[in-house]
Amino acid sequence: xxxxxxxxxVETRNMGTQELRNHFLLQGLMKKNEITMVYTHYDRMIVxxxxxxxxxxxxxxxxxxxxxxxxERREMGIINIGGDGVITADGKDYPLKKxxxxxxxxxxxxxxxxxxxxxxxxxxxxxxxxAHHSYPxxxxxxxxxxxxxxxxxxxxxxRTIYKYIHQQGITSCQLVMGLTILQPGSVWNSFPPHTHSxxxxxxxxFDLQENHRVFHFLGEPHETRHVVMxxxxxxxxxxxxxxxxxxxxxxxxxxGMGGENLxxxxxxxxxxxxxx
Length: 276
Prior knowledge:
Elements: E1 2-4, H1 9-13, H2 17-24, E2 25-26, E3 35-40, E4 46-50, E5 57-58, E6 74-80, E7 85-89, E8 92-96, E9 101-104, E10 111-115, E11 124-130, E12 138-140, E13 147-150, E14 159-165, E15 175-182, E16 188-189, E17 194-195, E18 199-206, E19 214-220, E20 223-229, E21 233-237, E22 244-247, E23 252-259, E24 268-269
Parallel strand pairs: 1-3
Antiparallel strand pairs: 2-21, 3-4, 4-11, 5-10, 6-9, 6-11, 7-8, 7-10, 9-12, 13-14, 14-15, 15-23, 16-22, 17-24, 18-21, 18-23, 19-20, 19-22
């Protein structure tokens, strides 16, 4: 499991393109017949992916956790962006079609991932944070998540937000997770811009056409930087960091947060005119 150490706005201010990518961009999360994870030192968040094709893949207990099993002191959210898949947690099967979400609570010991069809494998995106209490494992499909429409055609940011793990949805300790789908012709996400110093966030971009890119903006609102991203790549957003993006075509992205506050709309808006 790769580790990413935290950096402050002071270091980020002087980073070049490759340094920014080394610190914030997470590539290669979706590899066939592998599970890939990155341990970040922002709120101890772990970001990962698993693509089972010809075999069932188990959730490993990495030595870095110093735990008896992966979820001994953690919780996890999983969203499938690929073909039909099944996750087995402590002997119970949870079927996940595309854009379904599964929450695994603290204390879940044995977790296995598999695809229904190897020719069209599931692509499971994983997000895990520390937990102090055990909540039940729960599956939610996209159809069960209440959609929220935002943006407009005139501002090129018409989008639908699906909230899965939050205070009015699946209960968790400190994990908040969902996804956003941009409509054709819309390319801007997460406007108005904001920060939230009480929690870390990660974005995972998906359903972006092969020859298209997303320009993801990070850094302090008055001193922004950008990272150019391809399909199925993730980016870290530290608590002090703004996070929004613009694509060369429409796309979807999974957002996930962990930290001190579970409230979805706990954020500090940044007036658009103040961004530099």
